[in-house]
Write a structure and sequence with these properties.
Largest sheet: 5 strands, parallel
CATH architecture: 3-Layer(aba) Sandwich
Number of domains: 1
Bound molecules: adenosine-5'-diphosphate, magnesium ion
Number of strands: 7
CATH topology: Rossmann fold
Shape: globular
CATH class: Alpha Beta
Length: 185
């Protein structure tokens, strides 16, 4: 089983993936580390504050290093994953108000916080994943609070149980609280 874990920065990918791999006895691989170490990017975008992924080269590398019984973690999975490489994808979600705090604690700039929180509200990562991956082989988990609960749900999904997506509607939430302009202007 090759499992991908993706999500907006701060949704908890690293924490969650290490725990998932520990509990299932699977290998843990961070894709972003490989992309940076092997120069699978087209340089650093100073204005965006991130590396520009070289999708073709990175994808070929992923197939080359691909091995069973591994949890692959990274934002880039949303842009690279297909069913030739991965069997299942877990998409972590996080409440925008919680995400804003987590990213501030990580030391992200106000611009990076805005960009990532907006992306989370607008479902950018799930849309990317669904463009190349059978939705039935994916699960969205709300990882705003209880890590153990998130990991339990992922394990049930990986074992083939019928598990529903956590219902998240961040756009509805921020609309209700009159915060659309604060997050999306
Ligand atoms: N389920 C959770 N509940 C509360 N805090 C969490 C949870 N998962 C992760 N965190 C915290 O959120 C922050 C971001 O987590 P991290 O794993 O670094 O996210 P990512 O790898 O997606 O950027 C960390 O401070 C981490 O301790
Ligand atoms: Mg991380």
């Amino acid at each position: 089983m090759k499992i991908g874990v993706t999500g907006t920065p701060g949704t908890g990918k690293t924490t969650f993936s290490k725990e998932l791999s520990r509990r299932l006895g699977l290998k843990y691989v961070n894709i972003e580390d490989i992309i940076i170490n092997e120069n699978l990017h087209m340089g650093y975008d100073e204005t965006r504050g991130s590396y520009i992924l070289d999708i073709d080269r990175a994808y070929r590398k992923m197939l080359e290093i691909s091995e069973p019984n591994t949890v692959y973690e990274g934002l880039s999975i949303a842009y690279l994953a297909d069913e030739e490489w991965l069997d299942k994808i877990i998409i972590l979600r996080c409440n925008p108000y919680v995400l804003e705090k987590r990213l501030a604690e990580k030391g992200f700039s106000p611009e990076k916080i805005r960009e990532n929180v907006a992306s989370e509200i607008l479902d950018v990562i799930p849309s990317e994943v669904y463009s190349r991956f059978d939705r039935r082989k994916t699960i969205q988990i709300d990882n705003s609070n209880d890590l153990e609960k998130s990991v339990d749900k992922a394990i049930r999904f990986i074992k083939g149980e019928e598990v529903d997506n956590d219902h998240v509607d961040w756009l509805g939430l921020v609309t209700e609280r009159n915060d659309i302009r604060r997050f999306l202007d």
